[in-house]
Amino acid sequence: MLTLTNVHKIYNEGKSNEVVAVHDVNMVVYKGEMVALMGPSGSGKSTILNLIGGLTPATKGTIKIDGVDTNGLSNEEMTNLRRDRIGYIFQHFNLLDFLTAEQNVVLPLLIQGIPNYEAKRKADMLLRELGLGSRIEHYPNELSGGQEQRVAIARSLITTPAIILGDEPTGDLDQASAYEVMSMFRRINREQGQTLLLVTHSEEIGALCDRIIRIDEGTIVETGLEEN
Amino acid sequence: MLTLTNVHKIYNEGKSNEVVAVHDVNMVVYKGEMVALMGPSGSGKSTILNLIGGLTPATKGTIKIDGVDTNGLSNEEMTNLRRDRIGYIFQHFNLLDFLTAEQNVVLPLLIQGIPNYEAKRKADMLLRELGLGSRIEHYPNELSGGQEQRVAIARSLITTPAIILGDEPTGDLDQASAYEVMSMFRRINREQGQTLLLVTHSEEIGALCDRIIRIDEGTIVETGLEEN
Ligand SMILES: Nc1ncnc2c1ncn2[C@@H]1O[C@H](COP(=O)(O)OP(=O)(O)OP(=O)(O)O)[C@@H](O)[C@H]1O
Ligand SMILES: Nc1ncnc2c1ncn2[C@@H]1O[C@H](COP(=O)(O)OP(=O)(O)OP(=O)(O)O)[C@@H](O)[C@H]1O
Ligand SMILES: [Mg+2]
Ligand SMILES: [Mg+2]
Q1: A85-97 pLDDT, tens per residue?
Q2: CB B108 within 8 A of CB B155
Q3: Confidence at residue A72, expressed as pLDDT on a 0 to 100 scale
Q4: Pocket flag, ligand 2, residue A44 (CB < 6 Å)
Q5: Which of A129, A169, A184, A214 could form a disulfide with A89 if both were Cys (CB 3.0 to 4.6 A apart)?
C-alpha cells in the first residue's frame, strides 16, 4: 500500500542552515492496516506524512503508493492521486476561515464534481456523527480547537479515500471524544478497508492501532512488525 | 489572585445563532497555585482563558485579577495589565510567521522597553532550556508543531509574568518533552511564585498540578477544593 525505501529529506541542503529532517527511512504500511507513527517532537513525523502526501519532495529515496512511484508522476497526476486517494488531517487543521464548517467539508467533493446537494448531505451526516450537528454553519474562528479538529477529520473522510494520513488527529480532543474518533476510524478501516497512518503522541491512541512505528531523530527505530 | 464571579459569555446574544459558551462560572485561582482546567471539547476552557486575559468581554459577571475588577479598567490599563502581568500560551500558538523563533520570543520584552541585546540573551537562554538551541533562527514554518509550541511557551515566560494562562501548552509534545515543560512550570511556580492556570486534555498533566478544576457544557462541575 505505502512503501518508503531509503528516504531522506534535507532542508537547505549544503547551506549553513542545513537540517536533516529524516534519513534512511524504510517503512511499509500494508493495505487495510491502521498504523500509528510515534516519536519525540521534531523527530520527523509530519515530514514523513508530507512526503507520502506529496506535499514536499524527497531529497533521496523512493515513495510508492499502491506500487506507483510518486516521483515518476507528473504534477497533475500527483494532484489527482491526492484528490482521489488520499485524505489528510493536518497538525493544525488548515481549515479555510472564510468558509463554514460545512463548506470546508464539502469542498473535496465539489472538487471531484459531486453535486452540491449530495455533497452537503454527506457532509452534514459526517459532522453530526462527530458531534458537530449544531456547529455546521459556524466559521472556524467560532469553533473550539477540538471542534475545528473534528471538521478537519470530517473533511479528510468525506471522499472515502483509500489512504488517510492523520497528523495528531486527536491532539485537541478530550479522552472521550478521542476514543469516539478512533472507533470511527476503526469502523471505516474494518468496513471499507481504508488504510490509516496516524501520527500521535498518545500511547493509548497508539495502542488502539494494529501496530506502532517509532521514529527518533529522523529515522525509524521500530516497525512494530518484529513481534509477529 | 484570579476570581471569576457569576461569569457568563454568550455569543450572538438574542440572534438565531446564539451560543452560550460559559454560564454561572464561579472560580478562584489562589496566588502561587498551579491549577489545571479540564473538560470535554467545546466545554468552554479557551473561553475562560480568553475572558481572564481580557481578549473577549464577559456578557455578565465579574473578573478580578489581584483584586482589580477588569471591567473597570480602561483599554489602555487592560493592555498594560496584559503586557506586564499576564503570559498567554495560545491553543494554536499564534506566532508571527514573519519573525524567527528568537524574534517572536523577544517581542514582549521589546514592548516593555528592554534593550535588544538583553532581550536576546534572555530569549536564547529560554529557548535553549526548551531544547530549541539549534532552532533559534528558524521561522515558524520551518519548525515542527511541538517546536512551535515551545517557542510559544518561551514567549509567555520571558517577561516573568505574575500569571500564566496556558491553553493546552503541552498538546503538541511527546510525553518526555511534556514532562520537561511541566517541571519547568513547577520550578518557576516554586522559585518565583508565579501563578499558572493550564488547560489540558491529559489527566497525567492535570495530576502534576495542585488541583484540577473541571468544566462541562460551559459551567464548573468540580473545583478540586472539595478534598481539602
Ligand atoms: N465566536 C464564536 N461564536 C459562536 N460560538 C463560539 C464562538 N467561539 C466559541 N464558540 C463556542 O463556544 C463553545 C466553547 O468554546 P471553547 O473554545 O471555549 O471550548 P474549549 O473547551 O476550549 O474546547 P476545546 O477543548 O475543543 O479547545 C464551543 O461550543 C464553541 O463552538
Ligand atoms: N522548512 C524547514 N526548514 C528547516 N527545517 C525544518 C523545516 N521543516 C521542518 N524542519 C525541521 O525538521 C525536523 C522534523 O520536523 P517535523 O515537523 O517532521 O517533526 P515532528 O516529528 O512532526 O514534530 P512534532 O511532534 O513537534 O510535530 C524538525 O527538527 C524541524 O525543525
Ligand atoms: Mg509534527
Ligand atoms: Mg480550546
Answers
A1: 999 999 998 999 9
A2: yes
A3: 85
A4: yes
A5: A169
